[in-house]
């Protein structure tokens, strides 16, 4: 198994202490944007 993956960084969000200040709405928005970018039917 590889090293630790910071899921906030994967979503393009700040990590650490700044991540604690993020709302659920902000995290959800970042997740949906990343899912749209990586979706095989949405990318050429």
Largest sheet: none
Element pattern in H and E: HH
Class derived from helix and strand content: mainly alpha
Query: Distance between termini?
Result: 32 Å
Envelope shape:
flat
Strand content: under 5%
- Overall pLDDT score: 91
Helical content band: 40-55%
Number of domains: 1
Q: How many beta-strand elements?
A: 0
Question: Any low-confidence stretches, pLDDT <50, length ≥5?
Answer: none
Number of helices, where a helix is a run of at least 4 consecutive DSSP H or I residues:
2
Radius of gyration: 12 Å
Protein name: J domain-containing protein
InterPro entries: DnaJ_domain, J_dom_sf
Domain J: 6-44
Pfam family, one: DnaJ
Question: What's the SSE blueprint?
Answer:
Layout: H1 7-10, H2 24-38
Kindly summarize this structure in a few lines.
This is J domain-containing protein. Residues 6-44 form the J domain. With 44 residues, the protein is an all-alpha fold.
Describe the structure.
The protein has 44 residues and is mainly alpha-helical. The chain has one domain. The chain is 43% helix and 0% strand. The protein is built from 2 helices and no strands. It is flat and about 35 Å long. It starts with 6 loop residues before the first helix and ends in a 6-residue tail after the last helix. The mean pLDDT is 91.
């Amino acid at each position: 198994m590889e090293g630790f993956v910071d899921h906030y960084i994967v979503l393009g969000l700040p990590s650490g202490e700044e991540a604690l200040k993020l709302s659920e709405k902000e995290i959800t928005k970042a997740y949906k944007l990343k899912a749209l970018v990586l979706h095989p039917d949405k990318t050429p």
